[in-house]
Design a protein that fits this description.
Helix content is 70%, strand content 0%. It is mainly α and 209 residues long. 18% of the residues are buried.
């Protein structure tokens, strides 16, 4: 599953839904909603990768995760252009390989490992996500999106269901961030999602040079 459906949180959710007796249609719809944030990830990366072949972009999309996006977009913005080797490093070396190796080890010896919550190790995943989010807060829109998403997720999670909280926060946070006016000091390419290359886009400039 981790090789064919490399989706992180959606994989955990899907397993829980299967154990909970959900219908297959319900599982597909719920996990699709959970991964809807990838539309925003792809939109942010599109200006840098628009000139790449479609099959290559499809493979890049298969490897796209929260970690791969955070590391890649920060790297692309820093150097002002796309860097496929940088993307491979973020998506494969630091994420895909460790995830699948850990999955194999977990399935093999997981039953002999005590509950990680007893040692406080269950805080690692949310701490890692928080660290990635902080690194992406480069302007007013990102800060607003993060705050709204966090407050919504925690509120809905406590009042109803944690999975619903993640869904609500993941949808509402970016939506509010997109309609928030950028601050004057925000750089345009970091505050506006562009769906096609423009004359002032990094990938467009590199293509002309």
């Amino acid at each position: 599953m981790s090789v064919l459906v490399f989706a992180g949180a959606a994989q955990f959710a899907a397993v829980g839904y299967v154990l909970g007796g959900f219908s297959w249609l319900g599982i597909v719809l719920l996990t699709a909603f959970l991964n809807a944030r990838h539309f925003l990830y792809a939109a942010a990366l599109a200006p840098y990768l628009a000139d790449r072949p479609r099959p290559l972009r499809a493979f890049l999309a298969h490897l796209l995760t929260d970690e791969a996006f955070a590391l890649s977009i920060a790297h692309f913005r820093r150097i002002g252009r796309a860097d496929l080797w940088g993307y491979w490093w973020a998506a494969i070396v630091t994420t895909f390989i460790p995830w699948n190796v850990a999955t194999i080890l977990g399935s093999a010896v997981g039953g002999n490992i005590p509950d990680p919550g007893r040692f406080g190790l269950d805080v690692i995943f949310p701490a890692a996500m928080g660290g990635l989010a902080v690194g992406l807060m480069t302007g007013r829109r990102e800060i607003v999106a993060a705050l709204v998403g966090a407050v919504t997720a925690v509120g809905v999670g406590l009042a109803w269901d944690p999975a619903a909280g993640i869904l609500a926060g993941g949808l509402l946070g970016p939506a509010v961030g997109m309609i928030t006016p950028p601050a004057r000091r925000d750089r345009p390419h970091e505050a506006v999602i562009v769906f096609t290359p423009t004359m002032d886009d990094p990938s467009a400039r590199s293509g002309r040079e």
